[in-house]
């Protein structure tokens, strides 16, 4: 197995924010959460050379790391890229001379995966619009990774650019439905349904996980709601997403080693906080001793969550500890079951499981580690044992 270079974030990828064109934000409402995050990271990666290069490249592992997608399921990544290539971007704006300009383009003109690298391109017309600094809003990538709902991220993107003015201004419900990507649904023509299923959940999530607080206001024509706007203010608590958990963490040798492996800042601090420097440092040493590892960052995540041990210890400890053997077997079985599900089923499984997690720490751990979440291991085993009751591997000892 050929050893790959360690994943590093360089150049534009080191930035915390991506400049995103207002027009692009307006037309991306129908993207799934994964596609929306993917779109932002691809734009960030390409930004410096948007108009000077016809195509752009990014390591697929780095791409997954930046959107918080820690899966070997390449089919889901392919589907997300396909969705971007099939989604139409439409802009309607004033040019430098004050003339109205309308245009339409696919979000990506093409994308391909080859040799662990994602190559993609924008149409020249869209690239020009995306690169125009006069119409950009800043989207914080640390914040976008916290979202679990596509409507919430869409609302955040469309509200954030108005944070300085304090209000989005009035949108007709038709425009708002379009921004949220539900304009083609008969169900959401009813404001009651739109409010219950889109507005309230999206507002709650934006206010919980982002750096702004939004408050919806409506106005009526007759008895029916006709327009909506959002009042916006900074969230004083959510300097939290850029929180510094103590500068000591960031100046430690263990933190520096995690950065060298391409681990995100937040995840590095989380691991050190949860497990302690010595434990994490030991797992880094373990991974460094595995020369055939293709993705050190991903392997390290498993080493930490599954407590991988050096050969001289694991041979005796793992073979003689039934509990460890049972846990490892169940984790492998869960991964196998997950891979056997369709992308739609996998998304539904995750949402159903997360709806059962009331503890914020457990939710955060699952958001970061998915089905490999050590903090939720027992709950994960029980969930899959109920979902697949005839599975003998999960039935024992649950």
Automatic annotation (TrEMBL):
<dbReference type="Pfam" id="PF01051">
    <property type="entry name" value="Rep3_N"/>
</dbReference>
<dbReference type="InterPro" id="IPR000525">
    <property type="entry name" value="Initiator_Rep_WH1"/>
</dbReference>
<dbReference type="InterPro" id="IPR036390">
    <property type="entry name" value="WH_DNA-bd_sf"/>
</dbReference>
<feature type="domain" description="Initiator Rep protein WH1">
    <location>
        <begin position="18"/>
        <end position="159"/>
    </location>
</feature>
<dbReference type="Pfam" id="PF21205">
    <property type="entry name" value="Rep3_C"/>
</dbReference>
<dbReference type="InterPro" id="IPR036388">
    <property type="entry name" value="WH-like_DNA-bd_sf"/>
</dbReference>
<protein>
    <submittedName>
        <fullName>Plasmid replication initiation protein</fullName>
    </submittedName>
</protein>
<comment type="similarity">
    <text>Belongs to the initiator RepB protein family.</text>
</comment>
């Amino acid at each position: 197995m050929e050893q790959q270079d360690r994943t590093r974030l360089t150049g534009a990828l080191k930035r915390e924010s991506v400049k995103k064109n207002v027009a692009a934000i307006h037309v991306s409402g129908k993207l799934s959460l994964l596609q929306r995050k993917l779109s932002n990271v691809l734009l960030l990666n390409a930004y410096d050379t948007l108009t000077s290069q016809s195509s752009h490249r990014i390591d697929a592992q780095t791409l997954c790391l930046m959107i918080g997608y820690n899966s070997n399921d390449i089919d889901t990544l392919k589907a997300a890229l396909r969705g971007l290539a099939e989604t139409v971007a439409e802009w309607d704006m004033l040019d430098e001379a004050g003339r109205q300009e309308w245009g339409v383009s696919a979000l990506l003109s093409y994308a391909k995966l080859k040799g662990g690298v994602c190559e993609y391109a924008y149409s020249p017309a869209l690239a020009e619009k995306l690169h125009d600094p006069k119409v950009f809003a800043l989207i914080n990538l640390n914040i976008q990774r916290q979202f679990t709902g596509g409507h919430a991220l869409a609302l955040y993107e469309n509200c954030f650019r108005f944070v300085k003015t304090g209000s989005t201004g009035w949108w007709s419900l038709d425009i708002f439905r379009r921004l949220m990507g539900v304009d083609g649904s008969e169900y959401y023509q009813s404001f009651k349904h739109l409010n219950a299923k889109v507005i309230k959940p999206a507002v709650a999530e934006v206010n919980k996980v982002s750096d702004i607080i939004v408050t919806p206001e409506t106005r009526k024509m007759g008895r029916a709601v006709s327009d909506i706007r959002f009042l916006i203010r900074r969230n004083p608590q959510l300097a939290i997403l850029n929180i510094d958990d103590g500068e000591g963490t960031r100046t430690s040798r263990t933190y520096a080693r995690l950065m060298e492996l391409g681990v995100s800042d937040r995840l590095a601090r989380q691991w050190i906080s949860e497990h302690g420097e010595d434990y994490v440092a030991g797992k880094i040493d373990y991974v460094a001793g595995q020369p055939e590892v293709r993705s050190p960052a991903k392997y390290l995540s498993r080493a930490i969550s599954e407590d991988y041990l050096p050969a001289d210890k694991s041979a005796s400890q793992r073979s003689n500890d039934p509990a460890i053997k049972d846990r490892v077997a169940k984790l492998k079985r869960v991964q196998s079951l997950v891979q056997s599900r369709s992308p739609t089923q996998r998304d539904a499984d995750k949402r159903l499981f997360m709806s059962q997690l009331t503890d914020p720490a457990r939710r955060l751990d699952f958001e970061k580690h998915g089905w490999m979440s050590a903090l939720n291991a027992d709950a994960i085993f029980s969930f899959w044992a109920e979902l697949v009751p005839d599975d003998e591997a999960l039935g024992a000892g649950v």
